[in-house]
From TrEMBL:
<keyword id="KW-0479">Metal-binding</keyword>
<dbReference type="Pfam" id="PF02878">
    <property type="entry name" value="PGM_PMM_I"/>
</dbReference>
<dbReference type="GO" id="GO:0000287">
    <property type="term" value="F:magnesium ion binding"/>
</dbReference>
<dbReference type="InterPro" id="IPR036900">
    <property type="entry name" value="A-D-PHexomutase_C_sf"/>
</dbReference>
<dbReference type="InterPro" id="IPR045244">
    <property type="entry name" value="PGM"/>
</dbReference>
<dbReference type="InterPro" id="IPR016055">
    <property type="entry name" value="A-D-PHexomutase_a/b/a-I/II/III"/>
</dbReference>
<dbReference type="InterPro" id="IPR005846">
    <property type="entry name" value="A-D-PHexomutase_a/b/a-III"/>
</dbReference>
<keyword id="KW-0413">Isomerase</keyword>
<dbReference type="InterPro" id="IPR005845">
    <property type="entry name" value="A-D-PHexomutase_a/b/a-II"/>
</dbReference>
<feature type="domain" description="Alpha-D-phosphohexomutase alpha/beta/alpha">
    <location>
        <begin position="14"/>
        <end position="153"/>
    </location>
</feature>
<dbReference type="InterPro" id="IPR005841">
    <property type="entry name" value="Alpha-D-phosphohexomutase_SF"/>
</dbReference>
<dbReference type="Pfam" id="PF02879">
    <property type="entry name" value="PGM_PMM_II"/>
</dbReference>
<dbReference type="Pfam" id="PF02880">
    <property type="entry name" value="PGM_PMM_III"/>
</dbReference>
<dbReference type="GO" id="GO:0005975">
    <property type="term" value="P:carbohydrate metabolic process"/>
</dbReference>
<keyword id="KW-0460">Magnesium</keyword>
<feature type="domain" description="Alpha-D-phosphohexomutase alpha/beta/alpha">
    <location>
        <begin position="296"/>
        <end position="407"/>
    </location>
</feature>
<dbReference type="Pfam" id="PF24947">
    <property type="entry name" value="PGM1_C_vert_fung"/>
</dbReference>
Length: 543
């Protein structure tokens, strides 16, 4: 039994994107592909000898094999202990919490989030640092650089490890501790939220549904919603984790959570519906026949959050990704707390949370979170909403409409053109960039362009800068169109177009979002030539 050093040759495509390295399962199944990336992570880190690593994934196809490999590599590289979820399963927010709670050196999350799973689906790997959050770009860039020059990796000779039973075993000198994936996370939720009040709400006949979409949140939701909060059995839909996510696309939005949506729009619809994604960090919140945009959801938490025990201390600030709507900005302004605008991806929130500059964070892509961990957190958002509803004793729709009444409504939509030709997508973006100077002052459909630019960001805490984070077209009336290319896809390019309009007039706040944004949708096509470049007549997904 010993450390083996294996000779390898580099791959040139191991650049982490918005959230780790995501590729087709078949790419990860190539000999040494995973090993090279994992060794590149370890070679980039320093002084972890004898320390603890947290390890788990969303349960998708290839998870177990990858966990087995990573455990043996961690042992050969000198980690002292690995905390791994039973069955190799941990949600992304649970990994973040475990790193923090047990003072781990870092963690590895195996997930491609909502991307489909199975032998022909996607797989992914992400490294999280000691604050529990995704590694910042300085580290992910260093990992990529290393991966292009790697010549060898270290792995312990094959040892049997039983991932299905709680307890300790060893690989070489390293302890492998199999832990309950849910327990610590559920304890944290009990500390943050008023479980007594939520229990009373449910007892009083308030009906809820949660769709785990056959992905990682099933066991978490069952334990928290059904066992601890007393929601009736059957509250959690699709609660069994399957390695192909039941053949579905576990993305909590109106398109992919179609079953839940049908139930929430039925005549006997429950009062509250929610869904989460493959790895448990996203959330969608629905009322009876009512959809809450993720951007409004963040604003609702900022407006009402201090009723939850974990936030009674007050909210010091909020942060949102640039394409997320400015709904929360208006809450921050009125309540006089700071509001930060960051690039897309949770890794940019970490420094603000660590420095105590932000309490809540959110993204338009169904991501909400806070300083309780350093990832977005799907079930946390669901519990936060339930806590607010228990406190306010009103409906989801009323809570959102109250927000609009105070601050105005921000109409919002995102149009995705998935798997388009990569060259065509980058031409579209570069043509937009080339037109910045002439766009300013142009009038389209009665709307004047105030500024066209590309978003860049300098982290106010650590000074790290990043550029090319999305093209923004800002109009004089406050409307915005943002164009970005996705950094999480695994085939072709995905063009995202984010559309936003502020409507202060209460009598104009009840339109369908696509209708209210129709002129901006047309302008986006005029300015970028979407149909012409992509050859598509309509987006693949609208959220
Ligand atoms: C997308 C979302 C982004 C999110 C990221 C990871 O990135 O737009 O807001 O942080 O996914 O979420 P992109 O680069 O494809 O637009 V998850 O739940 O997929 O880890
Ligand atoms: Co996710």
């Amino acid at each position: 039994m010993s450390i083996q050093t294996k000779i390898t040759t580099p791959f040139d495509d191991q650049k982490p994107g918005t959230s780790g390295l995501r590729k087709k399962v078949k790419v990860f199944q190539q000999p040494n592909y995973l090993e090279n990336f994992v060794q590149s992570i370890f070679d980039t880190l320093e002084e972890f000898q004898g320390k603890t690593l947290v390890l788990g994934g969303d349960g998708r196809y290839h998870n177990r094999e990858a966990i087995h490999t990573i455990l043996h590599m961690a042992a050969a590289n000198g980690f002292g202990k690995v905390l791994v979820g039973r069955g190799g399963v941990l949600s992304t927010p649970a990994v973040s919490h475990l790193i923090r709670k047990y003072d781990a050196f870092g963690g590895i999350v195996l997930s491609a989030s909502h991307n489909p799973a199975g032998p022909d689906g996607d797989f992914g790997i992400k490294y999280n640092v000691s604050n529990g959050g995704p590694a910042p770009e300085s580290i992910t860039n260093a990992i990529f650089t290393h991966s292009k020059a790697i010549t060898q990796y270290r792995i312990w000779s094959d040892t049997e490890v039983d991932l299905d039973y709680l307890g300790d075993s060893e690989i070489g000198n390293m302890v492998v501790r199999v832990i309950d994936p849910v327990y610590d996370y559920a304890q944290l939720m009990e500390e943050l939220f008023d479980f007594e009040a939520i229990r009373a709400l449910l007892k009083g006949g308030f009906r809820i549904l949660f769709d785990a979409m056959h992905a990682v949140t099933g066991p978490y939701a069952r334990e928290i919603l059904e066992n601890r909060l007393g929601a009736p059995a059957g509250t959690v839909l699709n609660g069994v984790v399957k390695d192909d996510f039941g053949g579905g696309h576990p993305d909590p939005n109106l398109t992919y959570a179609a079953d839940l949506v049908a139930r929430m729009w039925a005549d006997d619809a429950p009062d509250f519906g929610a869904a989460s994604d493959g790895d448990g960090d996203r959330n969608m919140i629905l009322g009876r026949k009512f959809f809450v945009t993720p951007s409004d959801s963040l604003a609702v938490l900022a407006e009402n959050g201090t009723c939850a025990p974990g936030y009674a201390r007050g909210i010091v600030g909020v942060a949102r990704s640039m394409p997320t709507s400015q709904s929360v900005d208006r809450v921050a302004e009125k309540k006089n707390f700071a509001c930060f605008e960051t690039p897309t991806g949770w890794k940019f929130f970490g420094s603000l949370l660590d420095a105590g500059k932000a309490t809540l964070c959110g993204e338009e892509s169904f991501g909400t979170g806070s300083d309780h961990v350093r990832e977005k957190d799907g079930l946390w958002a669901v519990l936060f909403w339930l806590n607010i509803l228990a406190h306010r004793k009103t409906s989801v729709e009323a809570v959102v409409k109250d927000l609009w009444a105070i601050y105005g409504r921000t109409y919002y939509a995102r149009h995705d053109y998935e798997d388009v030709d990569s060259a065509a997508a980058s031409t579209l973006m570069s043509e937009l960039r080339a037109n910045f100077a002439t766009l300013t002052g142009q009038v389209h459909e009665g709307l004047t362009i105030k500024l066209a630019d590309e978003f860049g960001y300098t982290d106010p805490v650590n000074g790290e800068s990043t550029i090319k984070q999305g093209v923004r077209i800002l109009f004089v009336d406050g409307s915005r169109i943002v164009f970005r290319l996705s950094g999480t896809g695994t085939s072709g390019a995905t063009l995202r177009i984010y559309l936003e309009r502020f409507e202060p007039n209460p009598s104009l706040q009840h339109k369908d979002a696509q209708e209210a944004l129709a002129d901006l949708i047309r302008i986006a096509d005029t300015l970028a030539g979407i149909k012409q470049h992509t050859g598509r007549q309509a987006p693949t997904v609208i959220t």
